[in-house]
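Researcher: Here's the sequence for the chain we discussed earlier.
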Amino acid sequence: MEHSAAATQRHHGARPTVLAELRGTRWERLAGRSVKDELRSNLIRKLRAGEDLFPGVLGYEDTVTPAVVNAVLSRHNFILLGLRGQAKTRILRQLVHLLDEEVPYIAGTELHDDPFAPISAQGRQVLEECGEATPIAWLPREHRYVEKLATPDATVADIIGDIDPIKAARLGTSLGDERAVHYGLLPRANRGIFAMNELPDLAGKVQVALFNVMQEGDVQIKGYPVRLPLDVLLVFSANPEDYTARGKIITPLKDRIGSEIRTHYPRTIEDAMAITTQEAWLRREDDAETPPVHVPSFVAEAVEEVAFQARDDTRVDKHSGVSQRLPITLLENVVSNAERRALTLGEERPVARVGDLYAALPAVTGKIELEYEGELKGAEAVARDIVRRAIGQAFGRLAPRLDTDDVVAYFDTDNQLRVPDQVRTADLVEVFAAVPGLLDAARSLVPGGSADEVAAAAEFVLEGLHARKLISRSEERGYAAADLETAAAAPRARWN
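Model: Thanks. This is the structure I predict for it:
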């Protein structure tokens, strides 16, 4: 029968505070349940309920997410392999939502010992001394996740622990006593999740200590064998280049990692735009006097295409990758430039334009690592060329439905068009009206659009034709006819 005190506690919704009150509860029935079993059980419940397992992680529904689910269902320690900016850390941190909201532990124990199955000498001693009056504390799920960035200077003491002579002296015991150990990050993650980012950067001897804990549950600290039967899920992240080709990971540790899951950049422009829109700081309600910036869809698409073009550019280091943070920060800078223009010229509504991408080049140059060829040309020149090609690629997807023959013909007859800088976007409609067919093409992009949207669309058409080498553009002449060399090359240019 249940203790009356325990029944009273549950009736009033209070949490047990001593071991006697835990008797007869689900926690006694779950005594000894591993954290991997806990994760598996909660995952099964979420799958049956159709819940979103990793909110905010887009583009992985058919690739990475099923692999992570399989790893958890298999009770595997696993590693996420991928280049920077592929949401690896976000996925690992969201694993905490597969844990119970809170779990009981013996109050004051460093390893958060299960009251019904303590693993540390400290926990066993408290249980022996206090019996049914053993004090109980509650550990929320957020405190059951421990994360560490692997660095070459990380030591076994940092991760596993070290002998503490002062602790031994205070306890009046020898250095070989388990109670003299000062525990590192991994033991303190007991009954939780331990995540190690950039695993191959960890020194070899620390990797050896990790796989000893994973497999045998023990480790030698300063020559003293210490038994650590930890209950923990170990998850890792790494760059594929470091994990495989360079041999920075020791084979026994790699062999003990149950699942190796490859992440990737967004595979479609739609997924990529959804991620960027979700992550970028676009709603700037900090100042009520600043109206929100309108970002036309063709501008957002051109921003996202910059990342796709950079990843395919031979001048950009493929091993480093091009983070999804590039289009996120680029879009933020594009919005800021539109904001600055509106504030300077007194526009009622800021509208982002493709020209803002060139003003936002600092968001590109800092996100790409260049190969030798790119370094010779310079980061800004490479970034400007990538932006131009991105605009052309975005324009190319819309070109089949646009009639731009009259626009090209206008410039082929030795006409030029200079677009003034310090002019309100809506007023540019009058400037663009000088080019036959340009506003008609623009209006087909933004049916029923306002004057500023039509002007932004017209600029996009001109930039797209320039990117496709059908017209030219220079700082001195503005838009003009394509020179003979680029005009001859234009038919051979391929735009998907």
